[in-house]
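S.,

As promised, the biotin run. Input:
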Amino acid sequence: MIDRLSPEEIARNLKTKIIGSTIHIHEQTTSTMDSAKKLARTGFKNGTVIFAEEQTHGRGRSGHSWSCQKYKGLLLTILLKHTIQPDYLCLITGTISVSITETIRETLKLPAEIKWPNDILIYGKKVGGVLVALEKEPKKQPVFLIGIGININTREKELPGQTRLPATSLAIEKKEVINRNLFAAALLQDIDKWYFILKNEHYRYITERWKEFCITIGEKLTITDGGKDYTGKVIDISNNGGLMLRLKNGEIKTFRGGSATIKS
Ligand code: BTN
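Predicted complex:
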């Protein structure tokens, strides 16, 4: 029997203030980011979540694609009316990465970790990711489209080949089938909690938790930003979610998630 996502099942035990105020589930879409963009322009209740069982053009960060077998993952976009200083944008990605990681750890007792800024890994293999887009219209509050992709019940042979990082799913790591409706509800509940921490500008609380989960701290790596490469050791995550690197010449440089990508 195919385990399908159901708005009623997801909403059943949900006690969120904003996230999941309305839940839409599409059998197929190009990308939940496209569906969310349309909704953002036509009107929606703050915190609306769009899930899709299948995406024909799923997108990842930095122009990568995101593919997932039908009925096997969680593919969703949350629409959030939120205003944040441009310098703090990367914190949105951090907040959601923290939520996904915390939900996996707490509900499944799996050692999920974050590769800054948005890769969710288990034992070094990628299980999920976050993609944030911003919809701005004159005289209107900006709308954040928060895309989340998690491999839930994907089997080894169904994982996408040739990915930047090796891939895995929660079911592979847990060695059992996961109830996607229950996991989705736990995730939305956790995002709601962290979203209020963000909304109340308790940024330090977010970066502290992010650092606790982040495998990138202490690593020696190369970051590409604005077409230039920077090599150094990661020393911290800044108050606004940037990655702080001590370069070879001793200079400390902070990189923002929106433009910087880790090369090695
Ligand atoms: C990444 O790791 O690069 C981000 C992956 C984000 C994938 C999700 S799936 C739901 C939403 N729709 C998309 O097309 N992308 C995001």
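The first strand starts at residue 23 and ends at 26. The mean pLDDT is 95.

- D.
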